[in-house]
From TrEMBL:
Any one biological process term the GO annotation gives: auxin transport
UniProt keyword terms in alphabetical order: Cytoplasm, Growth regulation, Membrane, Transmembrane, Transmembrane helix
One GO CC term on file: cytoplasm
The family this protein is said to belong to: Belongs to the NDRG family.
Protein name per the record: Pollen-specific protein SF21
InterPro entries: AB_hydrolase_fold (IPR029058), NDRG (IPR004142)
Segments passing through the bilayer: 114-137
Cell compartment(s), UniProt: Cytoplasm
Length: 345
């Protein structure tokens, strides 16, 4: 057990493919953080979408050998779980305070302070992307860059609000039932992955369905409530001066939201990559499509894959390719299928 700035970390002895869980006490409750890699390296923090954790939201990306080599070669990974979303989590006490999106963003600052981290790279999916963007807006000096997958930035529309209320009521009365899982799979994946009468459900969707069974319904309701009460942060996006790479699947229900976000950011700092035939969770459904844009993006920081991978036909890049304009949408003009880069108007 270690103490730092009033926070407490408990090493629980559970190893996740080489990573170790730390439980960090914050002003808004305990946060589970899985740490992978050499802590002397720069930090990459991740934050998953609703009802997910690092195993169900980022496993596909980190199991993609080339993407994993790029990220693990350059970063120590800190997977932050929303409260009560970690593996084996107990139900949150009903008497505990209901957290807001801002509270969740403030927890990230306490996690960074606990581990003694300065400025970090951030990667989030949908709800997690919103929390990390909010964190970056509040603490600009602590964020090197943002990699956002199907991000949110506006307050919920009436249709999203109604949809979330239906899910919340189903969770309250029936728990993580089949209907809730169907709603969530629609949120995460494309039609092809979810399957239909003629096409069987994919292995990815089946694995996600099993992992959803492990979630405590009250814990999911708490995170959903925080996201459902989120404020619109569009007006502050222009003030973000960290480089931002946005991925969006063309079948994501949050497609227009991601396009809106990119359009409201400084074009000199943001690039939007559209992934064809994909839902919201690009990290699981088409992780390989993230590789080349991430390589270009990270080269802007002088980071690259280890030499044993540099001759891959997918990525004929070298550190000497770095240019100051690397992150402009024009220079991110990737034409390789299944990726299509959209340039903000």
């Amino acid at each position: 057990m270690a103490e730092s700035n009033g926070s407490v970390s408990v090493d629980v002895g559970t190893i996740y493919l080489g990573g170790k869980e730390h439980r960090v006490k914050t002003a808004c409750g305990v946060v589970s953080v899985i740490v992978y890699g050499d802590r002397e390296k720069p930090a990459l923090i991740t934050y998953p979408d609703l009802a997910l954790n690092h195993m169900s939201c980022f496993q596909g990306l980190f199991f993609c050998p080339e993407a994993a080599s790029l990220l693990l070669h350059n970063f120590c990974i800190y997977h932050i779980s929303p409260p009560g979303h970690e593996l084996g989590a107990a139900p949150i006490c009903p008497n505990d305070s209901v957290l807001s999106a801002e509270d969740l963003a403030d927890q990230i600052l306490e996690v960074l302070n606990f581990f003694g981290l300065g400025a970090v790279m951030c990667m989030g999916v949908t709800a997690g992307a919103y929390i990390l963007t909010l964190f970056a807006m509040k603490h600009r000096d602590r964020v090197l860059g943002l990699i956002l997958v199907s991000p949110l930035c506006k307050a919920p529309s009436w249709s999203e609000w109604f949809y979330n209320k239906v899910i919340s009521n189903l969770l309250y009365f029936y728990g993580m039932c089949g209907v809730v899982k169907e709603f969530l799979l629609q949120r995460y994946f494309s039609k092809e992955v979810r399957g239909n009468v003629e096409i069987p459900e994919s292995d990815i969707a089946q694995a996600c369905r099993r992992l959803l069974d492990e979630r405590q319904s009250i814990n999911v309701m708490r995170f959903l409530d925080a996201i459902d009460r989120r404020p619109d942060i569009s007006s502050g996006l222009k003030k973000l001066k960290c480089r931002t790479l946005i991925f969006i699947g063309d079948q994501s229900p949050f497609y227009s939201e991601a396009v809106h976000m990119a359009a409201n950011m400084d074009r000199g700092y943001c690039a939007l990559v559209e992934v064809q035939a994909c839902g919201s969770m690009v990290t699981e459904e088409q992780a390989h499509a993230m590789l080349i844009p991430m390589e270009y993006f990270l080269m802007g920081y002088g980071l690259y894959r280890p030499s044993c991978f540099t001759e891959s036909p997918r990525s004929p890049l070298s550190p000497s390719c770095i240019s100051p304009e690397l992150l402009s949408p024009e220079s991110m003009g990737l034409k390789l299928k299944p990726i299509k880069t959209r340039v903000s108007a």
